[in-house]
Amino acid sequence: MNDEGNLLQERIRNQMTCHKMGVSNKPVVRLGYAESHLSHNDKDSQDQTTTIKQSLQDVNAPGGESNSNSDRNRDNTQILTTPQLSSRIKHIKQEMAKNHLQFVRFEATDLHGVSRSKSIPAHFFQEKVTHGVFMPRGYLELMPNLKDNEVNHIRATCFNSDIVLMPELSTFRVLPWAERTARVICDTFTVTGEPLLTSPRYIAKRQLQQLQDSGFSLLSAFIYDFCIFGVPEVINSKTISFPASTLLNNHDQPFMQELVDGLYHTGANVESFSSSTRPGHMEICFLPEFGISSADNAFTLRTGVKEVARKYNYIASFFIETGFCNSGILSHSVWDMDGKRNMFCNSSGTEQLTVTGKKWLTGLLKHSAALSCLMAPAVSCRKRYSKESKDLKESVPTTWGYNDNSCAFNIKCHGEKGTRIENKLGSATANPYLVLAATIAAGLDGLQNSDGALVGPDEGTDLSQLKPSEIPLKLEDALVALEEDQCLREALGETFIRYFVAMKKYELENEETDAERNKFLEYFI
């Protein structure tokens, strides 16, 4: 390798050193990339040198049983020393030998929240941890035939270039549903060492860091609906599928037992699962965790449920046979930095939101139109917003209430978890990292720019000094709302917003309903 090549490799290694996973048994969660070098426009063309701080998580042996104690996710950003990194890699290599692993998947999320991975032989693992795994950028950004005039802020040379997958070693797990295979979740970088600004996981980490900088942490969990189908047939371009029998009592328990047990061994703790309203329709609830872990758990489910279902001759999909998308709820609460005090809970014991909680909710209501674009990002996803209304409308009101599952934002004060808000705008096909990031961005804006004055749900759904957004029923209108929402543009990044909007416009121009349904059944299975 020539001097220029050596210099480039050295730069990447220097910038990514902090990205390797560190010492276990330290109660930490927060992740974050330093914001000091990121402008609001954060264009790819800028030559930024970004310090990357690795979030440490208290986990047991890689591939072994995860620590269910959510304290493993407390905030404490640290940078690993070389001995700590070496010790961690040694521990992983011992686990690989113990389980006779042949392959390791380096996984990253694409814009839809679907896993894109490269598998490498296990004996190359240490080398790939050091240098990363290269992947074409188009694998993650998913738009063929880019038009320069639509996305001129992302140069065609960038789109067609390679990116680097750098593993977060805290996520290394042996996959129970894949033979002699482990996985590690990766963050994505350009070959010159900058974070990929369209990466949903990077955007979520950045928002978590913003929340920490404001003196708070986030405890959250996803609640997903999904469907189990028999083998589909395609007739006249339409996918004809048959739902599996309703999973009740002991019928077909092996499938759900293997799924839940497998998720546990990958570090994703399931609190409950149940059959839902129709044959083959399931709901699964995760235990709440601090930091990025809730989105990582959801990301793991989206791949794991597909692979386990295939073993039982099923197809798992987040798309319902009636043409709707299943729900993907983010249940969350804001805590202090130490994770000891729920900032939504009243000390008086009354089942009402605190001032902090009201301000947070104010932000969610204010930005609900733009939020819906990221949380229901396809035409079919948005049908659920109007499924109970027979009137032809362009939008529906944004609703909130206490213990009211029909509301877009449902405040729950009962149970051992304490007060939390369920963001029910999301569909199960939305990218969980984007759901997490956008929810934090909207809530933070409420904390920083609101007086928190709410009219009670029994008195109406309006704010006293702010007209709440309505949720557009058409994706085209939601895209406009996202483009016009200055807060989310700045929080999520100009590059990401412009690219996301361009991608969705491309999909709208090239997609028919039947083709979209086939895509969801095939792509999201």
Automatic annotation (TrEMBL):
<feature type="domain" description="GS catalytic">
    <location>
        <begin position="200"/>
        <end position="525"/>
    </location>
</feature>
<dbReference type="GO" id="GO:0006542">
    <property type="term" value="P:glutamine biosynthetic process"/>
</dbReference>
<protein>
    <recommendedName>
        <fullName>Lengsin</fullName>
    </recommendedName>
</protein>
<dbReference type="Pfam" id="PF00120">
    <property type="entry name" value="Gln-synt_C"/>
</dbReference>
<comment type="similarity">
    <text>Belongs to the glutamine synthetase family.</text>
</comment>
<dbReference type="InterPro" id="IPR014746">
    <property type="entry name" value="Gln_synth/guanido_kin_cat_dom"/>
</dbReference>
<dbReference type="InterPro" id="IPR036651">
    <property type="entry name" value="Gln_synt_N_sf"/>
</dbReference>
<dbReference type="InterPro" id="IPR008146">
    <property type="entry name" value="Gln_synth_cat_dom"/>
</dbReference>
<feature type="domain" description="GS beta-grasp">
    <location>
        <begin position="99"/>
        <end position="193"/>
    </location>
</feature>
<comment type="subunit">
    <text>Dodecamer. Interacts with BFSP2 and VIM.</text>
</comment>
<comment type="function">
    <text>May act as a component of the cytoskeleton or as a chaperone for the reorganization of intermediate filament proteins during terminal differentiation in the lens. Does not seem to have enzymatic activity.</text>
</comment>
<feature type="region of interest" description="Disordered">
    <location>
        <begin position="57"/>
        <end position="79"/>
    </location>
</feature>
<dbReference type="InterPro" id="IPR008147">
    <property type="entry name" value="Gln_synt_N"/>
</dbReference>
<dbReference type="GO" id="GO:0005886">
    <property type="term" value="C:plasma membrane"/>
</dbReference>
<dbReference type="GO" id="GO:0005737">
    <property type="term" value="C:cytoplasm"/>
</dbReference>
<dbReference type="GO" id="GO:0004356">
    <property type="term" value="F:glutamine synthetase activity"/>
</dbReference>
